[in-house]
Amino acid sequence: MGWGHAPCPPSQLEDLASGEWIDKYITESGFHRNVFVLISLVDMYAKCGSMEKARQLFYGMVERGIICWSAMIKGYASDGLPKEAHDLFFEMQRENLRPDCYAMVGVLSACVRLGALELGNWAKEMLDANEFLLNLVLGIALIDFYAKCGSIAQAVDIFIMMKEKDRVITHVKASHRWDEAEKVRLTLNEKGMQKLPGCSWVEVDGVVHEFLVGDTSYPMSAKIYEKLESLFKELREVGYSSTIEFVFFDIEEKEKEYFLGCHSQKLAVVFFLINTGANDIIRVVKNLCVCGHCHEAIKLISKVTGKEIIIRDNNRFHCFREGSCSCGDYW
C-alpha cells in the first residue's frame, strides 16, 4: 500500500480515529518526512474537521504544493472558519501560487460567510482571467455565492453557462420558486438526466451503513421507523413542528410531512442511536446539502438525547450540541 493514498478512506468517511491511527503508524514507520504522505495527512485532517492538527502539519512542511494549500483553504471554509480561509488564500497569492478550482471553491464559500460580495466578484474576475473551466464544482460554488448574496441574475447567468445543471436546481427550489424549479426539472428529465438521490453513511462497530431517502430495504427498517416516530414525539414536546416549506416539491402537506421524516440523515442518526452507547458521538456523512428541516430537527435531537451529532454534507461540517449548530444556522 502507498501511504500517500492510505488516508483517503478515513477522509472520505470523516473517520478521524482511523486517520489518527494511520498518522501514528506513519510517524513510527519513518514515512512522516515524505511530502506526498504529509499532503495526504493534511487533506485527511482537514476533511475530518480537525483543522488545528491540519494547520500544525501544514506549517511544519518544508514543501507545500497547491493541493495542500487548497485542502487547508477548503477545510477552513467547510469548518465554519471563513476568515482563516480568506487569509490563507491571500497568503497563497503572496507565494505566487496559482489556485486550482478547489482553492477557488473554498474562497468563494468564505466570501459567502463573510458577506463579501465585492471580494467574491474579484474571485470571479480571477477565474475569468485565468481561463478556469466552469466545471460542476466551480459552477455550483459560484451559483451558491451569488444566490446567497442576493445577486440572482448573476446566479442565473452562471446556471445558463453550465453543461451539468441537475444539482443546481436545489438553489432554485430553496427560494420557493416551485413553478420555475419544476420547469427546469421537466427540461432535464426530457434530456434523460435524473436527480441524485439523498444518501447518508454512518459507521457502527467498524461497519459503514448506507441509507437512502425513504429507505425501507434495510433489515432494521421497522425498528428504525418505530424509533424515529418515538423520537419525533419527544421533539414535539420541546416545540418541534414540521417545517413543510423545506420540502422542495409542490405536493400535499401530509405527503410533505412524511417525506421530511424519511430523509437519509435522520435514518442514519436513528440507526446510530439504536445501536451504540450513550456517550458515543454520532458522525454522519451525506452526499447532498442538509435541508433546513433536517437541520432544525437534528438540533432538537441533540438537545433531547444529549448527543453530539456531526454531519458532513457536500458543503460543510455541522456540529450539533445541546440544540444548536456550529454553523449558526447559516450554510
From TrEMBL:
<dbReference type="Pfam" id="PF20430">
    <property type="entry name" value="Eplus_motif"/>
</dbReference>
<dbReference type="Pfam" id="PF01535">
    <property type="entry name" value="PPR"/>
</dbReference>
<protein>
    <recommendedName>
        <fullName>DYW domain-containing protein</fullName>
    </recommendedName>
</protein>
<dbReference type="InterPro" id="IPR032867">
    <property type="entry name" value="DYW_dom"/>
</dbReference>
<feature type="repeat" description="PPR">
    <location>
        <begin position="65"/>
        <end position="99"/>
    </location>
</feature>
<dbReference type="GO" id="GO:0009451">
    <property type="term" value="P:RNA modification"/>
</dbReference>
<dbReference type="InterPro" id="IPR011990">
    <property type="entry name" value="TPR-like_helical_dom_sf"/>
</dbReference>
<dbReference type="InterPro" id="IPR046849">
    <property type="entry name" value="E2_motif"/>
</dbReference>
<dbReference type="Pfam" id="PF13041">
    <property type="entry name" value="PPR_2"/>
</dbReference>
<dbReference type="InterPro" id="IPR046960">
    <property type="entry name" value="PPR_At4g14850-like_plant"/>
</dbReference>
<dbReference type="Pfam" id="PF14432">
    <property type="entry name" value="DYW_deaminase"/>
</dbReference>
<feature type="domain" description="DYW">
    <location>
        <begin position="239"/>
        <end position="331"/>
    </location>
</feature>
<dbReference type="GO" id="GO:0003723">
    <property type="term" value="F:RNA binding"/>
</dbReference>
<comment type="similarity">
    <text>Belongs to the PPR family. PCMP-H subfamily.</text>
</comment>
<dbReference type="GO" id="GO:0008270">
    <property type="term" value="F:zinc ion binding"/>
</dbReference>
<feature type="repeat" description="PPR">
    <location>
        <begin position="34"/>
        <end position="64"/>
    </location>
</feature>
<keyword id="KW-0677">Repeat</keyword>
<dbReference type="InterPro" id="IPR002885">
    <property type="entry name" value="PPR_rpt"/>
</dbReference>
